Every structure is written in C-alpha cells, then in structure tokens.
UniProtKB/TrEMBL annotation:
The Transposase for insertion sequence element IS21-like C-terminal domain, residue ranges: 315-387
Tree of life domain: Bacteria
Protein name, entry field: IstA2
InterPro entries referenced in this protein's UniProt entry, alphabetically: IstA-like_C
Region (Disordered): 479-532
Length: 555
C-alpha cells in the first residue's frame, strides 16, 4: 500500500514529465481530482483535519461534563469519574437522551487532559533523565523467587544491590525478608563490591529499616534502631522512596535489574541442595555479568565498575554481627523457641538460659562463648528442627524411646542416619536384644562427635561384613579407615623401590586375617593374674619352727 507522500510524488512526476491533465492524472492513479490538485500544489500531504468533538448534541452538557472532570482533581484516584459514570449522571441529572457514548468518550479524553494541564497536574507521568556520579548512589530491593529444594518447591527472596553509576549488582537468596537477611545481604554486597556508596542507598519503606512513615514534604521516617546502628557502622545514609507505586520509579534501576537477573539466571526454577549452594552460583553469575553492556552505554559494566570501585568508601575494620541476639530458656524436651520455631540443644542444658545468634539462614546457640548447637533456620511457622546427637545421652538409658523419636525421623529424612546405621541396628537388636542392641547403636552414633561421618559409615560396613555387632569393632575399623586415608600409598599395581608389587589398602586388609578384629576366633584362655608379683613388694615373715615334743627340743 502506497503512502500519501509517494502518491503525491508520482502525480507530480507524471505531470512534469508527460504533461498530463488533472483528469488524466486522477484516472491513472485512481484518486479524486481534488487529491491531484493538492499534490500539484504541494509535495507534502495536508494535515488531517481535527475532529470537532462538540457536536450539537453534546453542546448543552459541556458545562456539566467539565464540572465533573474538575471535581476529579481533588477526588481519590480510585473514585474519579469514568465515561460510563458521566453518561449515567447526564441521563439521571440532565435528562441527556440520544447522546452517543463514542462522542462522549472522545470529548472526555481530550477535555480531561486539558483540565488537568490547566491545573498544573498532567495525567501522564513525566520522568527527568538523571546522571549519577561514580560511587555516590546505590539501590536495594527484594524480589520473590521460587527454588526447588530437597523439601520441595520453596518461596524465597532475592536480595539485590545495584550501583547507579556502573550498573554493577550483587544478588543473594534468603529464605525470608527478615532484618537479619536484610543486613546480611548488605554485608555480602559491600564485601563483594569492596566498599560502600558515599552519598546514600535508596530503599522502599520496608519494616527492616523503617518503623513508621511520617507523611510530609521532607520524607521523614522513624528508622529501626538496629538499622541506624548498622548504617552508622558502615557510614552511609538511607534515602526512602515514596510509599506505594508512586515511588517505584525512584529506584527503577534496581527494579529492572532484579527482573533481568531473574529471567536470565533463574529460569528454569533452580534445583539445588541448599540456598548456600545457590548463592555460590549467583556470585559467579554476578561476575559473569561484568561483560554485558547496558543499553545506551559505550563501556561494559566491568569497565564502568573499574572506574567506580576505587572511589567507594572503604569497609570498616570491625565486623558487624548481623544476627539478632536472644536468650531463650531450654525446655524439658531440650528445645528452645526462636521466632515460632523450635530448635534442639544438648540435653544437659535443660532448664538453663542460652544465648542465640539468629541469622538469616542459620541459628547459632551458645553457652557463654562456646557454640553448643548450629541449625539451619526454618521459615515454616511451628516447625521443629531437632538433632539426634543432642539426645544420645538420654537415649542411652532410655533406649526404648529411639524408634519413635522425632529427631530420628528427621535424621533419616536428611540422610544423616544412613542405611548402614539401619542395618547395624537391626543386626545388633537381633544379636543382643532390643535394649542392648540399641545401646550399641547409640555408642556408634557417639563416634560421629569426634570422627568424620564417612569413616564411621566405612567402619559400620566393615563390621557388618564380618558379622560384628559391637560398637568397639566399628570404632576400630573407623580408625583404620581414618589412618589409611592419611597415609600416602604408592600407585596401585606398580612396583616400589624394592621391586615389590604394591597392593591397595583394601587388598592388604582382606589378605591379612588380623586386619579385622571381629574375624579372630574367640579367646578361651583365662585372664592373666599378677598375684605372684605381690611377693616382690614386701618380704613375708616366715613362721617359727614347730616344737619337737618327743625329743624335748625345738627344731
């Protein structure tokens, strides 16, 4: 389809080259003679005539319509007149019959814009381009994110800090939007960036930073005291955007960055074993994004950040503790209550108060300065996070409580209680009875406190291979495994310096009948005695000679 400019050019060319008349040109180009005369008069097509909305039917109601539109200047945003409502009021209040909805809609669209412009309040939001100085400003935001964890698909939150000058950003995932996550995200971002913005960082009015919004022209806020302490420690100021959607554009950089990063690096839904593993992946993605170029910029993000990084304020030498400090009391189930969740501690602390560092992803329990328990923080209200190791001393004299223990169920679910433990427990109960067999298992579980889990499992496997069901046998085999892992060996199958073939550690154990203590035959010899050595300690007094009565003397 030809544009009107091209049509006019062809008409003017045919008239100039062939000298055709107006009638001939109109017939050739299938247009009206009026269009031919317009083309011959000017190469530019005439502007389309503006439609006159004030038809004779709407003229009597123009004053009423304008009054309704002016009343919207002071009305709430969601209670302003729509075209349908204006038409209804005209029918009810002014008996406007036969008025076309399309005519009214066109008039309202044009007149509303004019009335708001006269009042100095344009309907369309106007944005003013900004130039950011290096190392001056940053922006922070949280975005929702779904992650496939071993427990299932879980809703998490993506923390993003974005530097306005270079576009360099840092992303971390947390299970909640708590203040602990908020502070840990800042610490991770400042550490990754190697400094702190010198002017301010922009935020929403989130509860982790703002306790109350004081409406006014000076953006006054009542800040959280711990947040003020954090800002004072790192020496930066906070800039808080307008509440609601009206302030979203004030930190549009981080809003767009969060969406871009999520679309490019978190699609499809990431499947990981833990959030710590996911955060390692995000840190690599942040560094890989240094090679990208933001639209309209000549340099890459990495090149811009190289200019900005030396100008950031240096990090303080002291480390800020982001965790919230609590002092709960241990109940009779060896649990503490932290943010509507229960966590286990060693049973010997029942009835005592302990100190807790509540962080974004973990709960650290201390007795004085000694760490007595560490748990992954749960985001599910009312959850119980129990460690089987904390109940072993109690289960030693209450072995019947182990089969139904909640801590055992959780240990099985997380893989800490392996199939090797299950097999040893079954064999021990069969050989020694339920109570004694369970105590043997508990002695094995106690080995985990000072030996690596992989060595204990190897010891269980070796003991089961020869039919042993004693914890002492597992301990001996686990220590052999531990010593064997630390001793260097020659390559298997090659000759050593003496010309002898080197076999693997496993081959040596299987070929040596004394390698497995449980494989030895039972020893029926009596236990040795040291009573004879007591004679060496003191000289025994000899008894006097007996009297010889027959001879009348003493022998």
């Amino acid at each position: 389809m030809r544009s009107k400019v091209m049509l006019f050019e062809q008409i003017r060319r045919d008239s100039r080259v062939e000298g055709l008349s107006v009638r001939a040109l109109a017939k050739r180009h299938h247009v009206h003679r009026r269009t031919v005369r317009q083309a011959l008069a000017s190469a530019a097509p005439p502007e389309p005539a503006r439609r006159r909305w004030q038809s004779r039917k709407i003229d009597p109601f123009v004053t009423a319509i304008d009054a309704m539109l002016r009343s919207d200047l002071t009305a709430p945003r969601k209670q302003r007149h729509t075209t349908v409502r204006i038409l209804d009021r005209l029918v009810e209040e002014h008996q406007a019959t036969g008025l076309s909805y399309s005519t009214l809609r066109a008039y309202v669209a044009q007149r509303r814009r004019e009335i708001w412009a006269e009042a100095g309040r344009p309907l369309a939001e106007v944005f003013v381009p900004q130039t950011h100085q290096p190392a001056a400003e940053g922006e922070v935001d949280f975005a929702e994110l779904w992650v496939d964890l071993p427990a299932g698909r879980t809703k998490c939150y993506l923390f993003t800090m974005w530097l306005c000058f270079s576009g360099r950003s840092v992303h971390r995932v947390f299970p909640t939007q708590s203040q602990e996550a908020f502070l840990e995200g800042h610490i991770a971002a400042f550490t990754e960036l190697g400094g702190v913005p010198t002017v301010h960082v922009k935020y929403d009015n989130l509860k982790s930073a703002v306790s109350a919004v004081l409406f006014g022209t000076d953006r006054r806020r009542t800040e959280n005291e711990r947040w003020v302490l954090f800002r004072s420690h790192y020496q930066f100021d906070g800039f808080y955007c307008l509440p609601g959607v009206h302030g979203a554009h004030e930190k549009g950089g981080v809003e767009g960055e969060g969406g871009r990063f999520r679309r490019n690096h978190l699609v499809p839904v990431p499947k990981v074993k833990s959030l710590a593993e996911l955060n390692v992946r995000l840190a690599k993605a942040d560094r890989a994004d240094d090679h990208r170029r933001i639209n309209g910029r000549v340099r890459t993000v990495g090149e811009m950040f190289a200019i900005e990084q030396p100008l950031l304020r240096p990090l303080p030498t002291e480390v800020f503790e982001p965790g919230l400090s609590l002092n709960p009391r241990v109940d009779r189930h060896a649990r503490i209550m932290v943010r509507n969740c229960q966590y286990s501690v060693p049973a010997k602390f029942i009835g005592r108060r302990v100190r807790v560092h509540l962080r974004a992803g973990e709960v650290i329990v201390l007795d004085g300065r000694t760490v007595i328990a560490t748990h992954e923080r749960s985001g599910r209200k009312g959850a119980q996070v129990l460690d089987l190791d904390h109940y072993l001393e109690v289960l030693k004299y209450k072995p019947g409580a182990l089969p139904g223990a909640t801590a055992l169920v959780q240990a099985r679910a997380c893989g800490a209680f392996t199939s090797a433990h299950e097999a040893f427990w079954a064999a021990a109960r069969k050989a020694h009875g339920d109570a004694a067999g369970t105590r043997e298992l508990i002695d094995v579980l106690l080995l985990h406190r000072h030996m690596p889990a992989v060595d204990v499992v190897a010891g269980l496997t070796a003991a089961l291979r020869v039919g042993a069901t004693q914890a002492d046998v597992v301990a001996v085999e686990a220590r052999k495994q531990q010593r064997g892992a630390t001793q260097p060996e020659h390559p298997v199958g090659q000759d050593d310096s003496a010309g002898q073939r080197v076999v693997s550690l496993t081959e040596r154990r299987l070929s040596d009948p004394t390698a497995v203590i449980a494989g030895l035959p039972p020893d029926s010899r009596p236990l040795p005695s040291v009573d004879r050595y007591d004679e060496l300690l003191t000289r025994r007094k000899t008894a006097p000679p007996a009297a010889d009565l027959s001879k009348g003397n003493v022998s």
